[in-house]
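Review session, final week

We close the course with one last complete record, chosen because it touches almost every idea we covered. It is Carbohydrate esterase family 4 protein, a protein from Hypholoma sublateritium with 255 residues. Go through it on your own first, then we will talk.
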Amino acid sequence: MRANIIFTALAAAVCSVSAASVEKRQSLARVVTSCVKANTAALTFDDGPWVYLVDSYDVSKALVAANATGTFFFNGNNYECIYDADSVKRVQYAYSKGHQIGSHTWAHLDLTALTWDQIHDEMWRVEQALTKIIGVVPAFMRPPYGNYNDLVRQASFIRGQVLAIWDFDSEDSDGATPAQSESFYDQLVARRPSNVIALNHETEETTVHQVLPYAIKKLQAAGYKLVSLAECTGLPAYQSVTTPGVRDSTWTCVR
């Protein structure tokens, strides 16, 4: 009789843990598609860290000169390996200037085409890199191509992330000319939405040299304050902030 009672108690405990695990797995991460603070605009930049961030015209310098804060969604191994010396300097520089750093996953794969384990791997590897390089675990993750499904949201929830989408696209990565991207900004300002999350790409030279300066002036002239995604949404930028690591043999994109 006692054995049956013990077995029943153990079974109930296992079921309770399993139910909690299933509930956690089924929980969906929040998806942010717009700001909540009026008269704010978040200029966001995908696909870096790339050469134009600090090495050429310098995206960060343009933002800082305008008293603006940007949000950079970095990959781990897209255009270049994030652990390369130049890439490390770019990440450190952007963070040191007060810009928000977010995850754009490791290799810029379509997360909706991946398995549960592959999704976590794409997220974890870039989070690990950012922890080593600048000592932060980002609270925002932008899925490549803006693609996500419930599996991606479940993985993001477990990882403590918010999915960051946008409500304005400069279309610079889709072949838009600088003039076209500027026209899109003109149309945006003419509509005068309460707030804006703008998608741009720091890997596009014309975006950096032509469109970004135009967008900054246009948005500020219309009365928008250019802030980080965290500020315009009222959400924390990072899950944790700690001391950066020291380069060692693990700072590599080669498995």
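Two points worth writing down before the exam:
The mean pLDDT is 90.
Residues 83 and 250 are 9 Å apart (CA to CA).
Good luck, everyone.
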